[in-house]
Amino acid sequence: MNIRDLEYFSALADMLSFTQVAHKFAVSQPTISYAVKRLEQHYGCDLIAREASHRSITLTNEGEILKAHVRYILDEFVTLDRAIEHAKNNRTHIGFPPIIRSKVFSKLLDDKEIIRFISNFHLVSGGSNELLSKLLSGKIDFSLLGSVNPIIHPNLHVKLLFQQEFFIFVSKDNPLAAKKEISFAQATEYPFILLEKGYTHGLAFRNLSDKLTKKPEVQFYFSDVQTIGQLVSSNIGITLMTDFPVFQEMDGLVKIPLVPEDKEIFYIQYAYLKSAVLNQDVQKLMGILDDLSWVEE
């Protein structure tokens, strides 16, 4: 039995056609047949049942069991290959969502040595959902992640670092600016400018929108937080955002808390695969993140 045999069987279990599998891998049909026979010899049982016409096949009970496990086995081989390749190249890939990155670096402005240390990693930007997928597939080795609920996954070690609420941000010239707190329903009287889909903020927005009959209008999506802040301060629209450094430094923005029943929480955590062997640099980075003061002064 080898990895290629498992790849052939996985495709056969999905397609139920030797012809289609042979075409997919550009090999002969006997190649697929011999691979299945090797697996059947290894496990000592039939994995497929052929009809008398040989035009169609079905999986046996044992074949269904192997199908249920083989995808995970193949995914783990891919993750292993990537981990070995990263180690060979002495290159550690760290996921860093832009909003969390700005918060981390704002806390480290006076420590140039740590900033230089972090810059030696290969920093991978993107939304937390995208980075979580890359982490699970082994494309990155370690990641900071944001979420609207604490992340729990059987394959991950996760540590919660900080949590903060979402706010409505408006221009100082917007009528909402005078309010001490508002409901999300009140905020929907104005168009929203949001981060592009794939960012955790979109999940918080959807959670709030799902409570309402009247759906809010989204005027623009941007990946650049600075642009969102500038448009909101110009009273083009409003936004749902966490209170992070870029917005704190902008003139003309007013932060309004949501009423208790509408509060959404942004959880900041780091995560890595339970199967990962962390090098000294990643362990040092974890220590830096653990010791960081996440509360705004």
TrEMBL record:
One GO term describing the cellular component: protein-DNA complex
Organism domain of life: Bacteria
Gene3D superfamilies, per database record: 3.40.190.290, Winged helix-like DNA-binding domain superfamily/Winged helix DNA-binding domain (1.10.10.10)
Residues spanning the membrane: none
Entry keyword DNA-binding: yes
Full protein name: HTH lysR-type domain-containing protein
Organism classification: Bacteria, Bacillati, Bacillota, Bacilli, Lactobacillales
Entry's family note: Belongs to the LysR transcriptional regulatory family.
UniProt GO molecular function: DNA binding; DNA-binding transcription factor activity
Pfam families the record matches: HTH_1 (PF00126), LysR_substrate (PF03466)
